[in-house]
Write a structure and sequence with these properties.
By secondary structure, this protein is mainly α. The protein contains eleven helices and four strands; from the N terminus they run αααααβααααββαβα. It folds into two domains: 187 residues, di-copper center containing domain from catechol oxidase; 113 residues, no CATH class.
Length: 349
């Protein structure tokens, strides 16, 4: 597992479309073994954005007879109603994979969620970082881009990423407090990406094994070992690791020329480091995430419908150039200029 940490990217580079088209085709072929006439449908969530806006959970796609509710009322965030109620997670993952969480579930190792069913939640740490699905106007902006690298970046991020976050959600961070929540501000959706990044770099370690019967959920969480953080304040470590670039500093923080750092206004110097330490503890403990906000997203049936829309959009853009409507540079690549916390700017071969 250690060897795979830095090379688990199915996103953040031009492989995003190649990967997803390939395993969507593989899934479709598997379905055709059962019913030869079937094909994977696509979900145009821009229409849901137009019709429902901030009430996106009311979309009929989340009806019981379709894909089940977008968010669960269960304290454990299990889907409890509809066609996909109590959809199970593979429990003995070590038998088939090198990747599993401390409870032996086929989940990311950092997602210490012990619930053996697909989970959904419409909030991230009690907030809604996105109020609606990606818009037609957002797609239009990328339709105007003249290089496929820009389109790949858009399809990886703003044109489909929010759907993952909005359906998956994030909760149960036992280090969560109002100061940490405040400093994250609008970047609340970056929180899990920062945690994943530090896990890949080895600064976050997670339990290798937890027992349902004997381990409290609060005791089975990830952490940053003291030997990695020793010699740095929490603020210094976040700067050293480049994570301040992804924390929304305004309006919660003020930059002090005197101390050459961001400060929490209204708090004494001794309190400043306590607040930064609280934020670092929050990041290091990771918390629990719904399947769609993780690499276990294919468990959730909504996963299979959003990438087929991305595929159609890319091919439409290519065809518009082929038939002379506009120009399009198809030199394969990816725009790394607006990097997400999980984007290392490198390609794994």
């Amino acid at each position: 597992m250690e060897l795979l940490k830095g090379c688990d990217h199915w996103h953040d580079d031009s492989g995003i479309m190649t990967h997803h088209i390939s395993f969507t085709a593989e899934f479709e072929n598997a379905l055709r073994v059962v019913e030869p006439s079937i094909s994977i449908p696509y979900w145009d969530y821009t229409l849901d954005q137009y019709m429902y806006g901030a009430d996106w959970t009311e979309s009929p796609i989340f009806d019981d007879g379709w894909l089940s509710p977008a968010s669960s009322d269960s304290d454990l965030h299990i889907i409890t109603e509809g066609r996909f109620a109590y959809l199970p997670i593979y429990r003995k993952a070590s038998e088939i994979s090198e990747i599993y969480n401390p409870y032996g579930l086929l989940r990311s190792p950092w997602n210490t969620n012990p619930v053996p069913y697909v989970t959904r939640f419409d909030k991230v740490l009690d907030q809604r970082p996105y109020t609606h699905f990606p818009t037609c106007f957002a797609f239009l902006e990328y339709y105007k881009k003249d290089w496929i690298g820009y389109v790949n970046n858009g399809l990886n991020g703003i044109l489909h990423g929010p759907v993952h976050i909005m359906i998956g959600g994030h909760w149960n961070n036992y280090q969560h407090d109002r100061f940490a929540n405040a400093v994250l501000g609008k970047s609340i959706s970056n929180f899990l990406l920062i945690s994943k990044n530090l896990w890949r770099l080895g600064y976050i370690r997670c339990p290798s094994s937890c027992d349902y019967e004997t381990t409290d959920v609060e005791d089975c969480e990830c952490y940053c070992p003291s030997n990695f953080t020793e010699g740095y304040t929490a603020y210094e470590l976040l700067v050293k690791l480049g994570q301040m670039d992804y924390i929304d500093v305004s309006p919660w923080l003020e930059y002090s020329n005197e101390t050459d750092r961001y400060m929490f206004p209204g708090y004494a110097d001794v309190k400043q480091e306590e607040l930064w330490q609280g934020l670092l503890d929050l990041i290091c403990s990771v918390g629990h995430a719904g399947e769609m906000f993780t690499s276990a997203a294919p468990y959730d049936p909504t996963f299979w419908l959003i990438h087929t829309s991305a595929e159609r959009f890319l091919q439409l853009r290519r065809l518009s150039s082929y038939y002379g409507s506009n120009t399009f540079n198809e030199t394969w690549g990816y725009d790394h200029s607006a990097r997400a916390p999980s984007d290392f700017g490198k390609v794994c071969h």
